[in-house]
Design goal:
Helix content is 22%, strand content 40%. The chain has two helices and nine strands. The protein is an alpha+beta fold and 151 residues long. It folds into two domains: 1-29; 34-145, Immunoglobulin-like (Sandwich), CATH 2.60.40. A five-stranded mixed β-sheet has the order 1-2-6-3-9, with helices on one face. A four-stranded antiparallel β-sheet has the order 5-4-7-8, with no helix packed on it. The chain is globular, with a radius of gyration of 21 Å.
Length: 151
Amino acid sequence: MFSSRAFRHELLAATVAIGCGACALGAHAAPMPVHRGQITYITGGIGADEEDAMKAASGDYNLLISNAEKDGEFTAGTNLVIRDARGNEVLHAQNTGPLFYAQLPAGHYVVDATYDGIERIRNVTVGAQSSANIHLIWPQADAQQYDWRRG
């Protein structure tokens, strides 16, 4: 049987554990890296906490892609195909978040991005010690095409 003192210590320990768990749930870490062959990438950036976590992790990646509409609002759901200088596909990532960061071997690449049926193609060079930034601007979604009642 627990003494009153032991019970208070157990209660305090449980309260601290619950509080730490709540703090951990509230904090958003950068999305988990995905490894495909010699390519590693993360994607996300929905919400301020996740955006901050992604930006904090950006130094680990040499290709940084952002997706936004003309009004500056981030978009999600971009499909990306990255090809090397010879035209070989090195990565295909579907339904990416507003921010997409990849670590590629140094070289020249073609990024083929598609969002809502619209395609953007960008040539990019990443170095062993330098990164490349691509900012993709997409037309705003037509509110009349989307029935908010049906989701």
